[in-house]
Design a protein that fits this description.
single chain, 438 residues, Arc Repressor Mutant, subunit A, four-stranded antiparallel sheet, 12 helices, 4 strands, rod-shaped
């Protein structure tokens, strides 16, 4: 059996669609530019409030990452992840809930929420500090480690120069002593010259012996100085590698390996030369490995990094924005008024009797009951509901506990409703005038 399409439903849907389009068009036509501006402003404000939701999620995700990063230094990563999720959830939920709680209504609940928010905020900011510290102090940490390596190498080279000067100084003292003995032997005043040859000037056997020892010692000293020149070249290469480590960040691993190898080469060459003359050779420093040189900050309970204010401010700023936007999401609910809400609000606002233009050139309403209304036991909850609705949607602004004022986006709405009522009155009056004529 062939099924007949449901034409009635299709007709109803098309009718509703065209009716909504005609209603929007008629509103724009009757409201004019004011209605158009009101619609644009309402849509823009609603878009900004809706856009706050992904911003809150992104801020919470960023804060959660830094919190987890810092917490993983102290506890197992998967436990840190669970605690991080709990902390960020508490921050968002408590901020969202705080906007709907009044301290005088439920003090215990209010302060429990505030306390939970403070604890979660503090924990998130404290652990996030380590990640922001690592980012902000990255260059400073690298410079400190370069300076540490440089100071170790410089201290060792100073000890090397001191040992080298001591060895060469001893050789020069021996040469000076031999020169003095050589002069004494030439003039015959040397103690080892036999008495019968005393004071005889000339190159005798004693002079020739001392001259031979002097020449050997002089040759040995010159050879030692030449060998130390090779060590000096290795020292210059080591210092060049240190300068490159400070300047060439793109090839830091290669530069650091050159420093380590250069230090080892200087130590080996110097020890081979100096071990013949002395045993108290200066010990070479043990440099950190390259992985230790490039590793990030690893704080622990007993070894916390030095405190700096800037990373703490950045960590607090991220969490503060998360709290603020989460609070505003509940405090100012998004969304324009529906047609039924517009009618309800207009009718309820007409129930107020005290209106004035305040110092901001805005219409101001006294929302408290008048003395007559209090005497008559007037029930004002419908109009108070309307005030609360308009406050939550941003159409009213609270001046104090007694007064509220119109927001700019409320005037076109009221003007439209007043225009509709005026048209209805004119139409009714026109019908009444035609009735007697008939």
């Amino acid at each position: 059996m062939t099924q007949i399409p449901d034409l009635s439903n299709r007709f109803d849907n098309n009718y509703k669609k065209h009716a909504m389009e005609n209603r929007l068009f008629s509103k724009l036509k009757s409201g004019g530019i004011g209605r158009l501006i009101n619609i644009i402003q309402t849509l823009f404000v609603s878009f900004l409030r809706i856009w706050s939701i992904p911003i809150v999620l992104l801020l919470s995700l960023a804060s959660g990452f830094t919190t987890f990063y810092g917490m993983s230094y102290f506890i197992t990563p998967w436990i840190a992840l669970v605690i991080t999720v709990a902390i960020q959830s508490i921050i968002v939920i408590c901020s969202f809930e705080l906007a709907g709680i009044h301290c005088k209504a439920n003090r215990l609940r209010y302060f429990s929420v505030v306390g939970s928010l403070i604890i979660a905020f503090t924990a998130s900011m404290a652990f996030s500090y380590f990640k922001f510290y690592e980012i902000s102090e990255h260059d400073t940490i690298r410079i400190e480690r370069i300076n540490e390596v440089g100071n170790q190498v410089d201290s060792y080279l100073k000890n090397l120069i001191s040992a080298k000067s001591s060895i060469l100084g001893e050789h020069k003292k021996e040469l000076e002593k031999l020169e003095k003995e050589l002069s004494q032997a030439y003039f015959g005043t040397h103690p080892e010259i036999p008495p019968q040859f005393k004071n005889n000037v000339g190159e005798g056997p004693v002079w020739k012996h001392i001259k031979k020892v002097y020449d050997e010692k002089l040759a040995l000293t010159k050879a030692l100085e030449q060998q130390f020149t090779t060590v000096d070249q290795s020292v210059a290469t080591l210092q060049t590698a240190l300068n490159r480590l400070d300047s060439d960040t793109a090839h830091s691993e290669q530069a650091y390996q050159e420093v380590s190898q250069g230090l080892h080469k200087v130590q080996l060459e110097f020890n081979q030369l100096a071990a013949k003359y002395r045993t108290d050779l200066p010990p070479a420093p043990v440099l950190m490995t390259y992985s230790q040189f490039t590793e990030t900050v690893k704080p622990s309970v007993n070894n916390l990094p030095k405190f700096t204010l800037f990373p703490l401010i950045i960590a607090g700023m991220v969490d503060f924005f998360t709290v603020l936007l989460s609070y505003r999401l509940e405090f100012a609910a998004p969304g324009p008024l529906t047609e039924q809400e517009e009618e309800l609000v207009f009718e309820c606002l007409k129930q107020f009797s005290e209106f004035r233009i305040n110092e901001n050139d805005a219409v101001e309403i006294v929302i408290e009951k008048t003395e007559i209304e209090k005497a008559r036991h007037y029930v004002d909850w419908p109009r108070m509901f309307a005030v609360g609705l308009l406050l939550s949607r941003g159409f009213l602004r609270k001046v104090d506990d007694r007064r509220v004022e119109f927001a700019p986006n409320l005037y076109p709405l009221i003007a439209e409703k007043m225009g509709d009522k005026l048209q209805q009155i004119k139409a009714q009056s026109s019908r009444q005038n035609k009735a007697p004529d008939n």
